[in-house]
What does this fold into?
Amino acid sequence: MANIGSYENHLKNFNWSIAEKELGYLDGDVINIGWYCSDRICQLGKSEKTALIWEGKGDHEVKKFTYNDIRVLSNTIGAYLRGLGIHDGDRVCLFMDKVPELYIGLLGILKIGAIAQPLFSAFGDESLFVRLENAGTRAIITQRKHASKIQKILDRLPNLEYIIVVDDEGKKTLKDKEIVFHLDKAERVEKFDIFPTKAESGSILHYTSGTTGQPKGVKHVHYSLISQYLTAKWVLDLQDDDIYWCTADPGWVTGTSYGIIGAWALGVTQCVLDSGFSAEAWYRFIEKYRVTMWYSAPTAIRSLMKAGDEIVKKFDLSSLRHIASVGEPLNAEAVVWSQRMFGKPFYDTYWQTETGSIMISNFPGMKVKPGSMGLPFPGLTAAILDPDSFEPIYAVNKPGLIAFRHDWPARMRTYWNNEETFQKKFKNGWYLTGDRSTIDKDGYYWFIGRDDDVINTGGHLVSPFEVESALLEHPAVAESAVVSKPDDINMEVVKAFVTLHAGYEANDEMELDIMNFIRKKLSPLAMPQEIEWMDKLPKTRSGKIMRRVLHAKEWGEDIGDISTLEND
Ligand code: PRX
It folds into this structure.
């Protein structure tokens, strides 16, 4: 029996107080996600239940942690940070691979009332810099192998006081501001004064990319727990005896909302594989740990499809009870394929860094229409808006902008240091997601695309502006325009159109050099997969580069009105 019971009944009687009651939260009272995800689960009698099964890279080293372990170890990290003078409201960055310190560290940061800022460990120094600078981060917790990227930008970050290295072997001399903290060698802190955060106290700051300007810091608060708990229960259908695997990295919102908070607030056992993708490794992982609930993403699913059907048959995947997906359009073929291979469809879920929790989804028990994102979560007021009037469209199958009334617990509270851009996300009282969709006669949402130039590559948003700015820092690049181009697996990838300064030659070597430059500066995700050399870029008469024209060319679409295009 699925946790949600009847979706229709909940639509009639829904109130977020359902989650508040289950969590024992009193309005206006203290709410600390760190406590709910560890201490409370122990109080419920599950101290010895496994909270985390972690498997490392290469040699498959395994570590297991009970709920009491993560309670005590998050206390330990919290006490250490507090000892450094870090306190409520301070930003503490987590810049690590998917190691246990990342998961437990996040709870430790929350327990002292500080704000956790998880950043994807593959970020290069420039991506890291803009995010740390914007947040005014005081401390960063990292691994030795990533610390050199921080040293490169340290002199431009006056607010950064501590670089806490969790795996230093003591062989290297410590560099400026570096200190060493070993979680397994530290004295375990059994009893800890958790900071009494309230519903609106800041919890997590996730950075997301927009079309223009620098990445935006999405500010979440402790009250987000209410949505994350209930959606994990009703949509992901997490149950007490589940072995749950969320494949997302906590550098991104799925990895925190559901890879940490939702799962642990429900007292579920979750496992983490700290290594890259391979079909063989993933199926082996499911088989080895008897994974029952699997939350993944379309790019991974398409890669599994590409690896073929034969390989699936080599493994016993019969433990899987429920499977779901998020982050980019889940094509109908992938849903049909999973039904054939695993005996169940991937249940698509739609949401964003800004929404903090699942908004539209396929619920267990309901009819899945392959290719559709499903129905809005109970309690949400969702609509498709006319792009000119910003009024709801009631006509069936008519495209419009996906929008919500901004009143669910996990909604973002602002963009860090950027209230102006936050306010621009609203029209007529609606929060605009920036995505387009239709609604069919049964109320199901069908994703069409984004309403901006942001590139969603393999489920990760990349800002063309950020890549263009970085390209201009390459000595050979005179001008650039960045758009997406279609890709079988990642749906879309980054493509750059570049003009070179006089004296530089457009050849394969130069292409590789520029690609590498971006990979190191920003990240492998932002690296253009192709560079096309241009003599000049299409511009408006006022000199603005017309990305739209290049985008249309890549996607074989109509170029549209080009009357403003500059003539020779
Ligand atoms: O464009 C939508 C796409 O991913 C965007 C949100 O990306 P991000 O903030 O990084 O969060 C990703 C994980 C929650 C959305 O605006 N997106 C997300 N889920 C889907 C989707 N596109 C189509 N179908 C989905 N299920």
Notes: Residues 208, 253-254, 326-330, 348-353, 373, 433-435, 447, 450, 456, 461 surround adenosine-5'-monophosphate-propyl ester (CB under 6 Å). The chain has two domains: 7-437, 456-555.
